[in-house]
Design brief:
By secondary structure, this protein is mainly alpha-helical. The protein has five helices and three strands; from the N terminus they run E-H-H-E-E-H-H-H.
């Protein structure tokens, strides 16, 4: 520690490295605090220790006091959000993401099965002996049928209020391999 012993009537002067070490700050941050008027600079490379420490403590207190209302308001918002989420879960208005994810995975598999049935068993007979335009029309009809089946199932789907139950899609209009589109 390289400090100059001041005369009784002069301020305790320290160099930049000593002040930065005393406040556990970087020398660059000390420079910022000088520009903000928090740290007292005496001369080139010399700082008044006691007023600088007091200024820094006041700076920290003021910043903390300004942050407290903001932090309290943020905490209150988060508590309200948590309470609303819990109320929605308990009342059945909210469905857990895992239930929705299971629902989507299950119905994507059903859609894949439906598309496989249509394009491997029903589409080829509907397209035999037809020109390109007729084949396109037959494939479009197959796609429309798949879309209508999926949309119909989604319209009929209502989530269960009880969280233990899993939502399902009605597939009553789902085609089977022995049905024909033509």
């Amino acid at each position: 520690m390289t400090s100059v012993q001041p005369k009784p009537d002069s301020p305790l002067a320290v160099n930049l490295a000593t002040l930065a070490d005393a406040l556990s700050l970087s020398e660059a941050r000390i420079g910022q605090l000088v520009r903000e008027g928090v740290v007292v600079k005496l001369a080139r490379g010399r700082y008044d220790l006691v007023p600088s420490v007091k200024g820094y403590l006041n700076f920290l207190r003021a910043r903390t006091c300004e942050d407290i209302p903001t932090l309290k308001a943020e905490l209150l918002r988060e508590q309200i959000k948590k309470a609303k989420t819990e109320n929605g879960r308990v009342s059945g208005e909210l469905i857990p993401a895992t239930v929705i994810g299971d629902f989507i995975r299950e119905n994507c598999l059903k859609l894949n099965q439906l598309l496989t049935i249509v394009f491997e068993t029903e589409a080829p007979p509907a397209c035999q002996g037809k020109d390109i335009a007729a084949i396109r029309m037959a494939l479009r009809d197959c796609c429309d049928r798949v879309r209508d089946t999926v949309n119909g199932g989604l319209r009929n789907w209502t989530p269960e209020i009880h969280l233990a139950a899993k939502p399902t899609i009605s597939t009553e209009t789902q085609s089977t391999p022995d049905q024909s589109l033509s």
